[in-house]
Design brief:
The protein is mostly helical. The chain is built from 2 helices and no strands. The chain has one domain.
């Protein structure tokens, strides 16, 4: 089995965890509330963008592909199986 040498470290949970204060941070800079508020904004923005993408792009593309699949048995003179 081939091991993966590349590791993705930019997923949402890892980006949120990086907003926590460092273990070496002390005083007012160690307040986790600031990191929590940043994380809340990050996750909220990510969620809003994802929902907007599904609503405006994915759903329309799904409808186009579904219509093409539904009409796949309608063979025309152009001999195309799927027509998008």
């Amino acid at each position: 089995m081939i091991s993966n040498r590349y590791r993705v470290t930019t997923n949402l949970s890892q980006r949120v965890s990086r907003l926590n204060p460092s273990w070496r941070t002390s005083g007012a800079a160690a307040d986790p509330t600031e990191g929590f508020n940043k994380a809340l904004n990050l996750v909220g923005t990510e969620f809003t963008e994802r929902v907007h993408s599904y609503a405006t792009e994915w759903w329309e593309a799904y409808s186009v592909v579904q219509a093409a699949v539904d009409s796949r048995f309608d063979v025309k003179l152009t001999l195309r199986i799927l027509s998008l």
